[in-house]
What does this fold into?
Amino acid sequence: MNYQYLLFEQKDDALIITLNRPEALNAINTHLMKELNRFFNRDIENHRIKGIIIQGAGEKAFAAGADIKEFEGLSAAEAEIMSTYGQETYFAIEQCKIPVIAVIKGFALGGGCELAMACPLRVGGPKARFGQPEVNLGLPPGYGATQRLVQLIGRSKALEMLLTTDMVDVTEAHRLGLVNYIANENEELSLALKIVEKLATKSPIGIQKVIECVNAFSDKEKDGYYVEAAAFGVCAGTEDFKEGALAFVEKRKPIFNGK
Ligand code: CO8
It folds into this structure.
């Protein structure tokens, strides 16, 4: 794999992806977005892993948004294409059959906060700060915040964050449901690794189907209950289901093979 702005490190069952533009607070430029797209749509297949962790390089930021320095001279058509491409990339992360955990130590702003929201789980450190400052630039968000923020924290608080651009700290983000876990300083990554360890004991097919069904909730073309019943049916025919039920009866821990 040949990547310029993403670093990869495998630790046991986890693949750690680091957004690596610390000099620009890991702002997501076009190239970095293309690399995320390539990984989640293609290269992920080369990895045998149970969880993916996305973090930002350095202590200061997860990602401070899209790269504002690329905005100059952008035509309306180009901006719409960029927005759609970013949304598609984040959908691939949201729908990834291997769960993705965002580890946020500092700023998660604009497209950075949107990236964290596309991940099924989020761990925040004590200095994590979340915000959607796009209206300061004369823009609405373009990578999904007007939809995912509403889903995650509710319309009222989402509108407050989007309209005022006020940032929320990690305690408030946790209270709102914007982060799942608060980690101690310098323990953010190790907490995420522990979560992957836990996920690795579960049925990979079960996990994949939960992600698929929950995503159906916000897909206007799908009936989530139908998707859930169909997933339940598919899973009932799997070796994982037989193993899970047998292990319960035999009072032992299940060993899932993901088939
Ligand atoms: N883009 C490009 N460079 C950035 C960005 C960014 N989003 N954020 C920070 N940087 C750069 C700074 O320019 C600076 O570089 P340099 O040293 O070369 O001047 C370096 O990172 C360090 O930043 P600061 O000196 O500003 O650090 P501070 O600690 O003073 O401030 C802040 C930190 C508060 C995070 C501040 O940098 C800031 O406000 N950044 C911008 C945050 C923002 O507005 N984000 C939203 C961007 S728009 C967006 O995400 C829309 C997504 C959808 C796009 C759809 C396609 C068109």
Remarks:
- The CA atoms of residues 20 and 57 lie 5 Å apart.
- The mean pLDDT is 97.
- The pocket of octanoyl-coenzyme A is lined by residues 24-25, 27, 64-69, 79, 82-83, 86, 107, 109-111, 133-134, 137, 141-143 (CB under 6 Å).
- The first helix runs from residue 30 to 41.
